[in-house]
Write a structure and sequence with these properties.
447 residues, alpha/beta, Alpha-D-Glucose-1,6-Bisphosphate, Chain A, domain 3, 3 domains, six-stranded mixed sheet, five-stranded mixed sheet, 36% helix
């Protein structure tokens, strides 16, 4: 079934373009009706990041949910993983996060969580989509059954305490000078406070949201300011969150970026040593570097690959019993603790290893040399270029040339008419040659 509203991570688009008050109202009604199960008083918990449009969308969602008889609990700005955690711990029937993650301020989105704290599966999203285009007037609550809405206090403190409890009780981050960039987003209060309560010396930036500056020249998508600040303050480590704090990247004491692959390597090796890996492997996507796969293989840890997207990583983790997974972009999922990617929790796990090994971050977080990786995009107007005979021949020849020396990934974008060609291997010249050969074939096919 073709999805009209939901993408790979909820509903997302330009505020007052795709994400309108009318749509948010309908989402509240449709999701509320879908999750009305039983005669108890139903509740939905709604969190958001710091975008200006969050006020508009929040208000419309409240109208939708209360109109079908659901009570609403409003948290204010809080990370996406906190919404999943609180939905489950507060026994809510549904959780909602209003955020467009790492996108600019004028985008926004609606992410939905079930009562178990996990994002909804495709079947439930299809149910909601069917109701979004239906006439719901006869399904609305009667006057006496309308829902109520209220702001709830203390949820940020609950999340901070939850995050701290993922570390050993006696672990202190004392002696570490940490620069944290909160992207002027959802983690701007909780992340610096959690680190301070763990005794770290904290320099916080990106903590002055004004509705417009989320992810702007800050955060995990634009880490240049963080890199400079780490060197300026002679800090031990830098941590960059994205707009809804469900992913992060690390900056070492030299101001160099550490990506999600290196973070996965650090956590996997540490958890294996402590006997905490639920399976002899972790889950990542097809984009993770071959260097990570080889490093883990030398430790006896398998790397299972999924399509791009943290939802696919999580689905495989749940179905095969893995408790560590993530993406090169910095979405790290630690399912012993959380139901989705969590930037703060992942950073705490890295900090724990740094303290334990008492070595510079540049050494702790450099577990392997990434293999040369070349990524090129080919835009096309129509048709299916990957079905072209010359393109298929070029791909087959490239795979043969890389056998035993690297790998190749050719895939269509899920959001635009673009074919992405990625090659990596020990020989950068060879990788560039095979990628360019496929790009030329695609370009000719798309002409």
């Amino acid at each position: 079934m073709v999805r009209k509203y939901f993408g790979t991570d909820g509903i997302r688009g330009r505020a007052n373009g795709v994400i309108t008050p009318e749509l948010a109202l309908k989402v509240g009604q449709a999701a509320g009706l879908t999750f009305r199960r039983g005669d108890h008083r139903h509740r939905v918990l709604i969190g958001k990041d710091t975008r200006l449009s969050g006020y508009m969308i929040e208000t419309a969602l409240v109208a939708g949910f209360t109109s079908v008889g659901m009570d609403v609990l409003l948290t204010g700005p809080i990370p996406t993983p906190a919404v999943g955690m609180l939905t489950r711990s507060m026994r809510a029937d549904l959780g909602v996060m209003i955020s467009a993650s790492h996108n600019p301020f004028d985008d926004n989105g609606i992410k939905l969580f079930g009562p178990d704290g996990f994002k909804l599966n495709d079947d439930v999203e299809h149910e909601i989509e069917a109701l979004l285009d239906a006439e719901l007037i006869k399904k609305l609550a009667k006057g006496a059954d309308l829902g109520r809405a209220k702001r709830i206090d203390g949820v940020q403190d609950r999340y901070i305490e939850f995050a701290k409890r993922t570390l050993p009780r006696n672990l202190s981050l004392g002696g570490l000078r940490i620069v944290i960039d909160c992207a002027n987003g959802a983690g701007y209060r909780v992340a610096p406070e959690a680190l301070k309560e763990l005794d770290a010396e904290v320099i916080a930036i990106g903590i002055e949201p004004d509705g417009f500056n989320i992810n702007r020249e800050c955060g995990s998508t634009e880490p240049a300011v963080l890199c400079q600040k780490v060197k300026e303050m002679r800090a031990d480590i830098g941590i960059a969150l994205d707009g809804d704090a469900d992913r992060m990247l690390i900056v070492d004491e030299r101001g160099r970026i550490v990506d999600g692959d290196q973070v996965l390597a650090v956590i996997a090796a540490s958890w294996q040593a402590d006997g905490r890996l639920a399976q002899p492997g972790i889950v990542a996507t097809v984009m993770s570097n071959l260097g990570l796969e080889r490093y883990l293989g030398n430790l006896g840890i398998a790397l299972v690959r999924t399509p791009v997207g943290d939802r696919y990583v999580l689905e495989h983790m749940r179905s095969h019993g893995h408790n560590v997974g993530g993406e090169q972009s910095g979405h790290i999922i630690l399912s012993d603790y959380t139901t989705t990617g969590d930037g703060l929790l992942a950073a705490l796990q890295v900090l724990a290893v740094v303290k334990k090994q008492d070595e510079p971050v540049s050494k702790v977080c450099h577990r392997f040399d990434p293999l040369p990786q070349v990524l090129k995009n080919v835009r096309y107007k129509s048709g299916k270029p990957l079905e072209n005979a010359s393109v298929r021949t070029a791909i087959k020849d490239a795979e043969a040339r890389l056998t035993g020396q690297g790998r190749l990934l050719v895939r269509p974008s899920g959001t635009e008419p673009v074919i992405r060609v990625m090659g990596e291997g020990d020989d950068k010249v060879l990788v560039e040659e095979v990628v360019d050969g496929i790009v030329d074939a695609l370009t000719n096919a798309a002409a």
